[in-house]
Amino acid sequence: MENSGIYTNYGPINQKFEKQLVEQMFSGVGQCVTVCNATIGLMMALKYATRHKDTRVARYVIMPSFTFAAAAHAALWAGFIPLFCDIDPDDWMASHESENELLRQYGEQVAAIFPYATFGNATDIARYTALEKQTGIPVVIDAAASLGAHDALGQGFGTGSPHAIVCSLHATKTMGIGEGGFIYANNPDMIEALRAMGNFGFGQIRHATMPGLNSKLPEIGALLALSGLERLESVVERKRRIEQMYYDLLPGFGFQQQRGARISYQFMPVRLPPRFAAYRHAILERMKEKRIGTSTYFSPHLHEQSYFAAHSKAGDLHATRALASSIVSLPLWHEMTPEMVGYVCQELMNACHAADM
Q1: For residue 122, what are the CA distances in angstroms to 94, 134, 329, 357?
Q2: Is residue 330 a contact partner of residue 246, using CB atoms and an 8 Å limit?
Q3: Cβ(82)–Cβ(311) under 8 Å?
Q4: pLDDT tens-digit map of 122-175
Q5: 276-285 residue pLDDT tens
Q6: What is the C-alpha separation between 201 and 175, in angstroms, rounded?
Q7: Which of 114, 91, 115 is closest to 263 using CA atoms?
Q8: Nearest Cα to 68, choosing from 233, 258, 266, 334?
Q9: Beta pairing partners, 164
Q10: Closest-CA residue to 256 (of 141, 97, 89)
Q11: 302 pLDDT more than 80
Q12: Is residue 77 pLDDT above 80, yes or no?
């Protein structure tokens, strides 16, 4: 990189990473463009997908409230109002019944459908492709945590998708480089346009022909990403073995129903049994005392957060509220030992029973 003097602007290292990423993770099918972070990637993908929409009429983006704040911010920055749907209580992704109900209610006011592949779960892309053809409403898929996940056929999640699949390379993800991400699609025209949008909208040399911003991933980020690809498969497989330990050691706790062949979890999402959910704060405080890091993705869910509550609309969110109030995120990294996992599980159960006494 130093010898080339090229540090950004889709340089040779970035080009090598994009090519290798598609070959290794998407069976050589489709194209991708890197971005400096996935939030900007979501903004660009939504802007591109809705480019033919009259925003005076089509103002809403249907999306789940059980997701990260970045998704709602992206919709707002792209010029739309989040319209929150409920989730499926089993797989924790957008409820198709809830999406359909909002489509019936809002009709032509819906600019885009914006499902989230929750925690890397394999959302039904074929269903969304059919829905887009039926309604004319474009689809963008937030797949922030999906790199390394497999669909039901054992392919990299999103392989062959006609819709933009936006993935994160944030430090918290299974393959993190600090900040970064990419947009994948089996649509060369889309990827070419997104690449131009990410370079100030320059569809011609130094000539803006479309909406633009600066989303380019620096060469140093692409270099880290290339290195990460070399280890990704072994890291994911180690984490899968740890994931299975959690299932075995936490009977009675709730886990996400997997729709694909593999989820590439960045942490271990667990649902507390109903008798313990009311004591979640006390349980997590005890875990902290035992030097165990935990979190509560995604609680509060988006429509419970003051900014989004004031700048969005929502349908019935009863399943979202129930899950958000009982979710716990446990540590999961590829170098955890069985002893570590056992300690986390035992202390979680101890904390639950102590809080319930």
Answers
A1: 12, 22, 19, 39
A2: yes
A3: yes
A4: 999 999 999 999 999 999 999 999 999 999 999 999 999 999 999 999 999 999
A5: 999 999 999 9
A6: 29
A7: 91
A8: 266
A9: 140
A10: 89
A11: yes
A12: yes
Cβ atoms of residues 112 and 139 within 8 Å = yes
Query: Residues 100-112: pLDDT tens digits?
Result: 999 999 999 999 9
User: Rounded distance, CA 141 to CA 145, Å?
Assistant: 12
pTM: 0.97
C-alpha triplet 113, 116, 118: angle, nearest 5°: 160
CA angle in degrees (0–180, nearest 5) for 293-297-302: 145
Q: Which amino acid is at 92?
A: W
Rounded distance, CA 58 to CA 266, Å?
Answer: 35
pLDDT band at 356 (very low <50, low <70, confident <90, very high): confident
For the chain, the residue count is: 357
Residues 6+ apart with CB under 8 A from 322: 89
| Residue 232 CB neighbours (<10 A) | 19
Structure tokens at 144: 């922030």
Look up residue 284 and give its two tokens: 């997590």
